[in-house]
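User: My collaborator sent over this chain with a note saying "see what the structure looks like." That's all I know about it. Can you take a look?
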Amino acid sequence: MKKPTPLPRASHVNSGTSIPHEELPWPSRPGPVLRHHKIHLEHDARPDITSLGGLALPLALLRRLKAAQTLDANVDVFKRYLPYHESDHIICQALMLYAGGSCLEDMAMLQQDQALLKILGAERTPDPTTSGDFLRRFVPRGKLESLRAGIDEVQETMWKNPKRWSWSRKRKRKPLAVLHLDGHLEQTSSTREGADFNYKGKWSYSVLVASLADGECVGLRLRGGNVRSSDGAAELLDDVLPRLLKQFETVLVLADSDYDRADLRHACEGHGCYFAFVGRETPDRPAIAEQPRVWRSFQTRAKRAAAEREAKPSFKRRKKKRNRRKRRARQRGYKELKLARQAVAETEGPGGTRIIIRRQILDVSKGKSPQREMWKEVRYRYVVTNLPSSWSAEDVIDETYKRCDQENIMAGLHTGIAAWRMPVAQLRGNAAWLEIARLAWNLGKWTAQLALPKEVTRWEWKRFRRAFVDIPAQVIRTARQLRVRVLGTHRYINEFLSAHACLQV
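Assistant: Without extra context I'll predict from the sequence alone. Here is the result:
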């Protein structure tokens, strides 16, 4: 089985955060660079200018995916259309979140922008109170499931990528999908239905998140706060894995130690998929780890890459800065642990699984004294997996701990898309909000994957929004065409125009 390719970097160097120094003009006069001129404000009431010209990209993608038709075919919560259809509400809320809105009151951002209404091709959009009423319509059984099925169908249409589509960068069928599972606790007010006390004693919701390694979100489940992070994960896998297996040859599921459960392992094996979970320290595992076995020296992938760089003749070691944290810890007499070396071994687990054991040997010191303790501290870490023997123990450990990147995805869902806002009092209404937020999140990821530079998939939402959403534009309506004239001095204007040409039908 082919191993997954490394994720693209989103560093400042690769993506060009700042303008090259040699291209910046030099001030023509001495003194402070900022002149602080007196400014005179004028009011221009032209209704054909908007600050959200970047919404042309997700609208082109939604049109290409036929998202409105798919959503209307699946979701049925209205008896009469006065005047909005289900797709109108879903797409408007998704675009509001995509553009930076953080609550239902921000629906007015779309409602009051006349130029944006021309881009949407609408005379009006739902107001905040109507949007809240729409979310509450998903309380009856079956309604939320229909919304989830509609958004899943849009996602599967994106994955299929038919040959008749003229994408400039076609999404090829991949042999392996890496699926990450994790949970998130969101504190909420006491009026929210279905919430409960979490392990910290806070009244909260718990969200189960399933996402792919490229950042695309494939499943969100809302629960009360008094559950384990892994509760309900087996049912989520039964829903997500069949959809993924239509587009990928196999799936590798990664998760932390709370997901080291028999029902999750059986769910993965039942669908013919692989798993690699950080193992919990059960009472019998320390005894297993201490049995005589062959240990191999181990270094993480980052350590190995650093050693390769240092071995090059052109490498120059930088002078390290003073470690103020270590100095302060020694002044206060704290115990200091230093990783001396690591080793790895493997044994057979129940049901034919593999248990990868990592032994960490720590040097212990305390306070200002350089004296070390006589006995070194030994710790064991475990990984439970059913990956084939072609994956070495070192490869399994490196791949398993890539799941830590999902913390960035959940932080983006919080600060970038406002998915954890929970705007209504009903549990299933807030679950519907999560599904719409998933659509908004994926619109950004799909746009980046298909039509933008590769490293954009790793950008934070704040940066992505400033580059490809907050674009001043003039909307010109002629007899037969709608033209959006964007600001020519925008930094990413070339990438924006080429992306729109790629997504346009």
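A starting point for your reply to your collaborator: The chain has a mean pLDDT of 89.
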